Amino acid sequence: MPLGLRKKKTKPRDSSNLVENEEMDGLPGPGKSSVNGGGLPPPPASLRPKLVFHTQLAHGSPTGRIEGFSNVKELYCKIAEAFNLSPPEILFCTLNTHKIDMDRLLGGQIGLEDFIFAHIKGIKKEVEVVKSEDALGLTITDNGAGYAFIKRIKEGSVVDGVKVICVGDHIECINGKNIVGSRHYEVARMLKELPKNQTFTLKLVEPMKAFEMLEPRSRGAKPPGENKIGTGRGTLRLRSKGPATVEELPTEFEEKAVKKVDDLLESYMGIRDTELAATMVEVGRDKKNPDEFAMALDEALGDFAFPDEFVFDVWGAIGDAKQGRF
């Protein structure tokens, strides 16, 4: 429907998976994917991409070898199986670094040569915060498997003054309400709606750290060009709906458009989600006007209720990318 009328739609350890060093082989060539997974069921194991990835626990472990997954939840189960863990112990994964680096966070794409580091639950903590400003200064994301966590803390913000709260912390409870299983946009909305000038309580779980990994609570962004994921032969695209697909590396248009849309998500909604941004760019690539784009978003992403001005800005960002104006 046109803009202004849109509404939100209502185990034992397997040592065979642990290796010291092994080259990946049997990788298929890149293929094409459809725009919308449309809630398709995962393909049978025999038809899933025959890919092998290597993984370690971020705080230190042998190297694990995983394959045969089609979405993020299955990926976490495979990692947990390799290291004799329960899947809920895994908070999030980073690519090609063991550090809590939000620029290397595993999202909707994995380069076919990427190394996966799994960050598991560490210390639990509880903190009281006075919401002295309308905005807390938090950017929220989630791991695609039920855990929302802090991706960014704005310098000089309310939360920046609470030094026990760190980037990478999983938000488990808000004012005693367990929010495990909530999506990042739901958590961001809960935090935004907390009354000003009142105290609220957060229960947090920080990622486990090795001793040598202890470092300042936040880091600046990496210089341009250092944050690309993957080095060649394509990427594995993981979708919240539908099967994973092997695709070519993103084009310059896609990279610039996805980054801009992700920035708009943070500005309007207080979240970061490269998978969501990539899906929006995909949906808008061939749309002729904002109303057509808005209707396509409702069809593809009915769980989200986007403000009209946000949809207009996303439409403009995709158009700018097409014209090379970034």
From TrEMBL:
Residues 126-206 form the PDZ domain. InterPro entries: GH2_GIPC, GIPC1-3_GH1, GIPC1/2/3, PDZ, PDZ_sf. Residues 1-11 have a biased composition (Basic residues). Gene3D superfamilies: 2.30.42.10. Residues 1-46 are annotated as: Disordered. SMART domains: PDZ. PROSITE patterns: PDZ (PS50106). Belongs to the GIPC family. PANTHER family: PDZ DOMAIN-CONTAINING PROTEIN GIPC2 (PTHR12259:SF3), RGS-GAIP INTERACTING PROTEIN GIPC (PTHR12259). This is PDZ domain-containing protein GIPC2. It comes from Chanos chanos (Milkfish).
